[in-house]
Amino acid sequence: MSVILITVIFAAILAFVLGIALGFFQKKFHVERDPKIDEVRAALPGANCGGCGFPGCDGYAEAVATGRALTTKCSAGGASTAEAVSKIMGVDAGAEDLVTVLLCQGTKDLAVSKGDYVGIKTCRASKLSTGSVKACSWGCQGLGDCVAVCKFDALEMGDDGLPHVNYDNCTGCGMCVEECPQKLFTLVPRGKKGSIVLCSNRNVIKANVMKTCKTGCIKCEICVKQCPEKCITMVNGIPVTDYDKCTSCGVCVQKCPTHAYKLLETDVMGEKKKVPVLAEA
Amino acid sequence: MKGTLKLGITLALFAVGACASLAVVYTVTKPQIEAQDQLALEASLRDLFPEGEEFEDISASISSANDAVRISSAFLAKRGGAPLGLAVKAAGPSYGGQAVLLVGVELNRSIAGVRILELNDTAGLGANAKNPGYYVDKANKVTFPGQFAGKFITDPFVVKSDVVAITASTITSTSLTTIVKAAAEAGALWLENSALAPPADQNSAASYSGSAASESAPEATGGN
Amino acid sequence: MKSLWKTFKQGIIYENPLLMLMIGLCSALAVTSSVANGLGMGLAMTFVLLFSEIVISIFRKVIPNSVRIPIFIIIIAAFTTMVDLVMKAYFPDLSKSMGVFIPLIVVNCIIMGRVEAFASKQGVLPAIFDSLGMGLGYTWVMVAISAVRELLGNGSVAGIPLMPASFQPILFFILPPGGFLVFGLFISFNIWLKGRMDKTAKERA
Amino acid sequence: MAVKTFKGGAHPPERKERSSALAIQRLREVKLVVVPVNQHFGAPLQPLVKVGDSVKRGQKIADAEGRMTVPVHAPIAGVVKKIEPRTQSNNSDGSCIIIEALPPPAEGQPVPAPEDLADFMPPLDPFACSKEEALARVRAAGIVGMGGAGFPAHVKLAPSKPIALVIANGAECEPFLTIDERSLIERADDVVEGVAITMKIVNAPEGVIAVEENKVHAVPLLEKAIAASPRTRAGMKIRVQLLKTKYPQGGEKMLITAITGKEVPSGGLPMDVGCVVQNIGTLLAMVEAFKEGKPLIERGLTISGGACTKPANVIAPIGTPVADIIAAGLAQVDEEKLGMVIYGGPMMGVAVPNYQIPVQKNTSGVLLLDTIESKHYDEETCIRCGRCMRACSCRLSPALLAVAVESGDYKEAEKIGLLDCIECGTCSFVCPSHRHLVQRFRVGKQILRALKQKEAQNAR
Amino acid sequence: MDLAKIFLVALLVNNVVLMRFLALCSYVGMTNDVGQSVGMGFAVTFVTVLATAATWPIYHFLLVPMGLTFLKILVFILVIASLVQLVEFYLKKNIPGLYAAMGIYLPLITTNCAILAVTFENIDYGYSFIQSIVYAVGVSLGYLLAMVLLAGVRDRMKTSPVPKFLQGTPILFIASSLLGVAFMGFSGLIK
Amino acid sequence: MPAKGLLLSSSPHSFTPVSTPKIMLSVLIALIPASAYGVYLYGFSALALILVSMASAAAAEFVFRKLIKASTTVADFSALVTGLLLALTLPPSTPLWMGALGAAFAIIVAKEFFGGLGANPLNPALIGRAFLLMSFPASITTWTLPQGLVVGPDAISSLSLSQGAVDAVTAVTPLGLIKSGKTLADVGTYLGTHSDGELLKQLFLGFHSGSMGESSILLITLGGLFLLGIGVIQWIIPAAVLGSTFLFSWILGMNPLFSLFTGGIAFGAFFMATDYATRPLTPKGQVIFGIGIGLITAVIRKFGGFPEGVTYAILIMNIATPFLNKMRVKKYGFVPPVKPAKPSKEAAR
User: What is the mean pLDDT of chain F?
Assistant: First the structure.
């Protein structure tokens, strides 16, 4: 019985002293910081296991709160924690839902290649070494730098030599836009309606466009002339649609002799994406 | 300050609760835990001296001549008040750390038997010393510790000579042999000093026939 | 009831503490050289997890936030000590072969993690299911790993010889490096398994 | 004579025997030239002519303000047909002035007077004029370094540090190329004169003509020319130095190290160790610019390679499509065997999609490789044999550098010398796994420079 | 046992990570780069020594006389947790430079089982105070060694074409396995 | 203009004829003398062990790469090299299935798991040997006498060696004898020599029990010199390993020449430590690497649990390789960093 008594007394004293000391030190050494860190920290399990790659839960909370880390990294807490953390952080992340669009249709069959490229299989390397693997200096290199950089599995290299966007997965993060050495990607709002030119060539010698790519914009300006809404203008050699006026009537798409014009809602993001371009054109 | 005090008290309350229940568990299990150690030791002692009825703790009066080997305790086995032999618990270094052996010494200064209590050597190699199914002499089913039974402390105790080594574990074999020898010598010395054993020069195996005398040490025919 | 079952299942596979969350690894490797040890450790762990979660869930409303960690530690340490004492008293051999790893349950991230993430926020019943799921998830992996290691390294499972007499045990597997290797392959297998299950789930959806 | 060299390097098959004995031929009839506006390392130029203008041979057709610019001249007399982007020998599209030659005078028509066709500057004595005048002449003649990147010669000749040694780079370490070798043999006097002019301009006490051992037969000719030169008689010190045949012996830094034992500091220029290195072609162009007032409108180049059934050393007007040189019969090519066209040497040259691309100021050769020679290999994994490290003339660690670049660790890459790589290609040449090391470094340099630029902007 | 022996056994022969599987969470989590692992290693060394210095007297001068040895687990973990907390508070306020370098690793240490294991083993092995400290240093430097070595291997694996099914954590454990094989060479080094 | 597409690539466009398979083949050739001598000494069982080990290594690589759907790399001979190296480090009497298991383990776990050729952090052959040594310590430390070697007449009695079947005599290696406390003279007695010089000569020529890779130091050195001569390996590592082993053995009170002529130190120095993937790349790193191997070998032989320490010494130094790679030579034109260096504008011609 005496053991129990001694234990109880000892424990009481020890814990009391510790409690007081902790409270005291917490006050004395208090350092101001972002309340969001504490909020995130509170949502974390506090196992301090280091599984997230940050030094402990505090380190991770700070990283999340300052935007240096994803909200889903806590493995100890699992999905519920990730949700909670996202809730704390993600409230103000309600930006526009963007998706990426590839502004090139130069498939293996349609675009002429300059030669057989041997070397590092990245677009950046091929562009640096050959100017462009395709005869068109503006065309897609088809070596998948965009696919490699995409964290969301939203890009896939197709058999036709062009990357294909999986719009279910695309988050509009813009990594591909940054990465593409030819700057062929652009971000548009998901579900955007209107027409768009899937070509980026700025060749000033119009005659040469057809020699390099069967579906290149040849700057004939038929679209500009035919558009009933007069919403297409040539900017830097490429027709640009004014989406405030565009009614998706499809005239430009029909009239474009090289099928460079496409409708965003059907041909790009719609069910029947990538209508095959006619080769005879 | 009031908040701090409150924290301290809450913490203390939980600690008291936890520790109180712990203390209860402790008081319940304490006798059992202590009994376990004693039981294990006694089992070994009885194993060495099956005829022993009581075991007198003489740990205080025995010491080892070998610096590396520490005698942790020793027990004099008695039957009806008459001494049967001495069990020496000795610890010494082996391949994988400390090894603890219990060595039984007959009054005639031969070894009654050796039991390995603790050994952390490599599994499958040195650890075979405590494997009851591992025989250094397969024909006669003699285990490594078993081969010591019946040896006299005057024997050379040289591995690969009169002691058969465990295959590919010369170090374990040598270390254990050293412990056995040191323990047996310490035990024999104690017996001499207590005048329970005849002095060294009068040593003769014929004078006394121990329980393990029939088990003669195997000739050095196996191993490498 | 369904959500309780789901909580339970999470720990067994999807959020298996060892294979998916990769916490509480130390004991998983150290004591899995034989099935008896693996099972013993798993059950000891489940016991501590279960009672810690229950107690903390009961008291979750009266524990002040700023000292919750010390209080959790006290409670977990108390149960760990109990397990330690009980094992020493009634399973001395097992206790000896697991050595320092029984007391080390107290710093096992699984317990602290679950207590913080689950028990301190949920009721008693879900906490019980969570702890059982996590505990058994831990235990089955322990047993599986130790079975593989014991079979290859000793030719037996749970002490029962399974391999033919001519089998020469591959000691590598019960030595420390073997533990790392087997565990690494287990994780790889589980990742593959989970990928497969996600895929079929997606296809079904 | 002691043979000097540097540490590292490799010895690719020389293949010079195909063209080393062939005398330099001059291409006279040119119908059309495509003159890239920008052929130098530095700020871009503006065309000074417009479509339809008549131009005389040697007339300035593009220029710009600024120190790092060099004008471009019309290589032939004719009419400007177009000014439009065309593929240049670095594979990029650049603005080119396309000049069509005047038709040959019809029968009975008067042959136009030479002064109507040509517009050269008056001769200038470099030993009598001031340094400023001489430099102005070098720039006005449009002279750039004719071996490599096209560094403006007048900038190189106006160093901010004292110069002790002028080196004429006759190493010509690239396989196949023999134009420098032929120039050394056929125009030894002019080479010596060029060294003397350079020495005069930079006020250097000594000049060295560096020649690789495989051109040892040029040494007596050069020594004779040196002995006969009025400049050496007047006390100028010029000598010939033999170098071991090894790639990249002709690299500016390696050449300096081989001859002087000094190393050009990282990020520095040859003048930091008191040297000026001049390409043989550049020296000849300078001699012509002073003696004849002729700007840099033509250059010598080697046309060779396995698919080239008749190799040649030719002098052609700048802007001549190489196809026209072949069409003129100076060289022949077997289209069937052709696998690859390289402008420059096989170690540092650029593979281009056709040989329609014009000769530029820095085109030292055009190689028409057959399908066997042009075999390129797919990359295998690095086996870490360390051959690249022993071969690297800059003592870098290509294998480790490649790892740093691949893992995106540009900080580490810069630390271990990514920017010190001279892209000589030795590491890729010796790699048994055929790693595309140099290409990796090129890409890495591009990214690293972009990163540094970004950093500098952020710092601001 | 002399001190050098205790130290070497703890450092190499019974390496805390590779041979005894302690502190694996941080071993896996904190070896992304060499600098990080060194920081963590030194932080652990510091706290282990501190914890040993604190728990040894508490056990021998407080728990043993009062017959409360069974409270060992509870008391030790509390002491270590508080110690870590206090060190962190102190560093954050008074030596922010050191805190920036090391402090961020401190919270991870509370649940680092190597530290608790060392304090227990000091008691179990019956080490004296000095021996305990030496043992603590040996173990924690062994931890540092393993961390740094794995970080080196990991660094190298960043560009290796590791098969897909092993990428990530599995290959780390396999690498650790091979490190363990190499460390087996030390076994029996000190008898 | 050509209708077909020409090749486009980044310079250089010229490549050395040296290739990975040729390098591996030359290693195989360099190992022929030592292997052939081993087969001569130990007969058919040694030959079978070599063949099984090589076949198992190649098969393991082939099957594994097929399973993960990667390109097949058996044609580069590297697996065969690993298999042969492993076989040469094992006792000639090793059961064939163990050789096969070890080779498969070496290839799959130590090499392919990490990404195949060039990516393995530790020497696969040595991992294979260490794996077998850990797993089957008895078999891997059971040596046989070479055919025709008659041990000294008093050897059996004085060293208490036992004789089993007539054709396979169990034996101890010279290092094993030393480890169990015997002197050099005892080794001499055992091998039937009468002076230290004679003993060293016999060790050098290779007439003693042990693995095939430690039999004839002469033939191994010849193989090593062949590789040095054709530039497949460089002299720094072998020199550092052998030199430091000599030195540290001497310091620790062992006969330095005996240390060099016994065990796998020569084999390790020429064939194992020079393994491309696991040695440091930089000369400075290689020096330290070699010295480290010599030191650890001497320490394990003197104090450790194994008679032979080369395997573990090399493996331990393998782990240090990523750090030794940081010891680079100063690059061309190195200037102490005062300000960030500017890009070089010059390109070689």
Answer: 83
Neighbour count for residue D46 (Cβ, 10 Å):
11
The DSSP symbol for F213 reads: G
Residue spans per domain, chain B: 46-199
Which of the residue ranges C166-175, D415-424, E145-154 would you say has the lowest mean pLDDT?
C166-175
Query: What's chain A's average pLDDT?
Result: 79
Structure confidence at residue B224 (pLDDT): 31
Nearest to A241 by CA among A255, A229, A257, A259: A229
Nearest Cα residue in chain F from D170: F349
Q: Got the DSSP string for C78-138?
A: HHHHHHHHHHHHH-HHHHHHHGGGTGGGGG-HHHHHHIIIIITTS-HHHHHHHHHHHHHHH
Handedness of CA D151, D154, D155, D158 (dihedral sign): positive
Give the Cα separation of E186 and E165 in Å (integer): 32
Tens-digit pLDDT profile for residues F167-187: 344 677 788 777 767 777 777
Q: What is the CA radius of gyration of chain D?
A: 22
Which is nearest to D305 in space by CA: D175, D403, D168, D123?
Answer: D175
Which one-letter amino acid corresponds to residue C6?
A: K
- Percentage of the residues of chain A whose pLDDT score is greater than 90: 12
Q: Which of E148, E153, E165 sits opposite F121 (nearest CB)?
A: E153
Phi-psi region of F277 (alpha: psi -120 to 50; beta: other; left: phi over 0): alpha
Query: Quick check: is E103 in a domain?
Result: yes
Which of residues 270 through 329 in chain F touch E, CB cutoff 8 A?
296, 299-300, 303-306, 309, 311-313, 315-316, 318-323
How far is the alpha carbon of E191 from chain A, nearest alpha carbon, in Å?
35
Contact between D297 and D97 under an 8 Å Cβ cutoff? The reply is no
User: Which residues are CB-neighbours of C166 under 8 A, at least 6 positions away?
Assistant: none
pLDDT in tens, A24-83: 766 665 555 667 777 777 777 766 666 566 767 777 787 777 777 667 666 566 566 777
Residues of chain B with pLDDT under 70: 1-3, 95-97, 121-126, 132-133, 137-139, 160-161, 167-170, 195-224
Alpha carbons within 13 A on the beta-carbon side of D450: 9
What are the chain D neighbours of A131 within 8 Å (beta carbons)? 87, 90-93
Dist. CA F26–CA F31, nearest whole Å:
9
Distance CA A260, CA A250 (A): 12
CA distance E92 to chain B (A): 21
Among E71, E74, E188, beta carbon nearest to B95:
E188
Contact residues, chain C, for E111 at CB < 8 Å: 107, 109, 112
Distance CA D3, CA B32 (A): 91
Instruction: Name the D residues in 113-172 with CB < 8 Å from any A CB.
Output: none
- Asked if D197 and D286 count as a contact pair (C-beta separation under 8 A), the reply is yes
All residues of chain E having their beta carbon less than 8 Å from the beta carbon of residue B93 are 191
The predicted structure's pLDDT at residue A276 = 44
Contact B94 E191 (CB under 8 A): yes
**Chain D contact present for A205, CB below 8 A:** yes
Tell me how many domains chain E contains. 1
Of A4, A10, A16, which is closest to B9 when you measure between CB atoms?
Answer: A16
Mutate: best of A22, A27, A49, A74, partner E, most E CBs <10 A: A49
Cβ-nearest to B171 among E70, E71, E188 = E188
F232-275 pLDDT, tens digit each: 999 999 999 999 999 999 998 888 888 888 888 999 999 999 99
Contact E105 A55 (CB under 8 A): yes
Instruction: Determine the structural domain holding residue E124 and report its residue range.
Output: 3-186
What is chain C's length?
A: 205
